Amino acid sequence: MTDAKPGTLRPGGRTARVRAAVLKAAGDALAESGFNELDLAEIARRAEVGKTTVYRRWSTPAGLVADLLADMAEQSLPRTETGTLDGDLRANARLVAKTLRDPRQGPLFKAVIAAATCDAEAAAALHRFYATRIAEWAPCAQQAVERGDLPTGTDPHEVIRAVSAPLYYRLLATGEPLDEAAADQAAAAAAAAARAGAYT
C-alpha cells in the first residue's frame, strides 16, 4: 500500500476504503468519549484495519482529527441559493442548527472544539474547516451587496460568522435548544446587523 497522504488517492480504491473506515471510527469515538480518550490502536480495532496502517498514516490523534475535519469539509452540503439574503442566511442557520443538534454530529463538534483548545494541530485543522465552510457561504452576502441589499464594503465572511456564532454559543455554553426558531432568529439578527452596516 502506498504512503500517499490521506485523501490524495483515487476514490474507490483500497486506500479510500481504509480512510473512510478509520475516519468513521474516529468520529464515533470522538462523539462517544471525546478527544482525550482517542486512541489510535482502538481506532484501528474499530475500523478493522492494521494498527501499523493507522500509525503510519495518521501518526497522532491530532493528525487523525485533522483528516477527519478535512473529510467533513469535503462532505458538507453545498450552499443553498434562495435569491434573497434573508432566505440564504436562514438556510445557512438551519443547516448549522440541524448539524449541531444531531445526536452524533453535535457531540463530535464539541469534541473537536475541545481538542482545538489544547492541540495546535487540531486547532489549525478546525480553523481550515471553518474557513472552508464560511467561504462556501460568503457569496450569498456578496451577492446581496451587489444587489444593493447590503452596504458597499460589507465583509461577507463576517456576516456568515454572525449567523453561526449564537448557535455555537447554545451548543457550547447554554445548552438551549438548537431548533429552527433559534436558527431563524440568528439569521434575522445577522441580516439586520449587516443591513445596518455593522460588518463594513
UniProtKB/TrEMBL annotation:
GO MF annotation: an example: DNA-binding transcription factor activity
DNA-binding region per Swiss-Prot/TrEMBL record: 39-58
InterPro entries: Homeodomain-like_sf (IPR009057), HTH-type_TetR-like_transc_reg (IPR050109), HTH_TetR (IPR001647), Tet_transcr_reg_TetR-rel_C_sf (IPR036271), TetR_C (IPR011075)
This protein's UniProt keywords: DNA-binding, Transcription, Transcription regulation
Keyword DNA-binding attached: yes
Pfam family, one: TetR_C_11
Domain HTH tetR-type positions: 16-76
PROSITE patterns on file: HTH_TETR_2
Domain of life per record: Bacteria
Protein name: TetR/AcrR family transcriptional regulator
Organism annotation: Streptomyces coryli
